[in-house]
Amino acid sequence: MIAADLLAQAEHDVEAKPILVCTDIKIANDVNSSIKARLALLSTAPVAREALTKGFACVCDDLSSAVEVSNLLGPEHLEIHTEDAAEVAKRCTNYGAVFIGSVSAEVLGDYGFGPNHVLPTCGTSRYTGGLSVFTFLRIRTWMNVTDQSEAQAAIKDCVDLAKIEGLEGHASAAQCRVIGSEDDSHTAKKTKLQ
Question: Which domains does the chain have, with CATH numbers?
C-alpha cells in the first residue's frame, strides 16, 4: 500500500519527490522492493522512475524523530500510516494536507473526498498553507495610542532598542514622546517645522 501511494505521487511529474519516513529498516526495504515490482507494471513508469531518483527513505530511531523529520520536510501531502494515526497527526505541524490512517489515501483526496489540492510545495508548508479564501483577503493593521502617560514604558523601551540598533532617528522620534524629556519640552516649544 505504501509503495502504491508513493508511486501515485511519483507519476505526477518527473520533479515529484516521493519520500518515506519510517522507524524500521525492514519497512523501507519492503517498500523499495514493492516499488520495483510495481514499476514493471506501471504505464507511467518512465515519469515515476525519474521522480523516484529525487525521493528517498529516512529511517528514524523512533516515532518522535519521524514526526520531527516530517515537520522539517514540510511535505505537500502527508500520509500517516501508524497506530493511533490521529494522535500522531496532532504532532505534525508542517504539511499542505494530511491524510490520517491507511484508508485515507491521498488519491481519495484527488478523486473522491476533495480537500484543498492547491497546496504549498517544496517545504513551503513550514510557513504557509494551501490556497483559500484567506489568500484573497487584504490584511491591514493599525495602532491608536490615546493615553501618552500609559505608553511611557513602551516609549522608553523604543528609545533603548533604537539606540541598541544604532538608529538615532528612531530613538529621537520615540524620545520626543517621553513626558518631561528634553526632546519633549523642546518639541512643545516648536510652533512650525523648520
Answer: 2-136 (3.40.50.1980), 152-189 (no CATH)
Contacting residues for 149 by C-beta, under 8 A, at least 6 apart: 179
Residue that has been written with the C-alpha cell 522620534 in this structure: 173
Active site residue 76: yes
Q: Work out the angle between the directed axes of helices 152-165 and 168-175 (0-180°, nearest 10).
A: 160
**Residue in 76, 79, 81, 106 annotated catalytic:** 76
Distance CA 91, CA 80 (A): 11
pTM attached to this predicted model: 0.73
Tell me if residue 11 is catalytic: no
pLDDT one-digit tens code per residue, 141-173:
999 998 888 899 999 999 999 999 999 999 999
Query: What CA–CA distance (Å, rounded) separates 52 from 15?
Result: 9
Residue 177 DSSP code: T
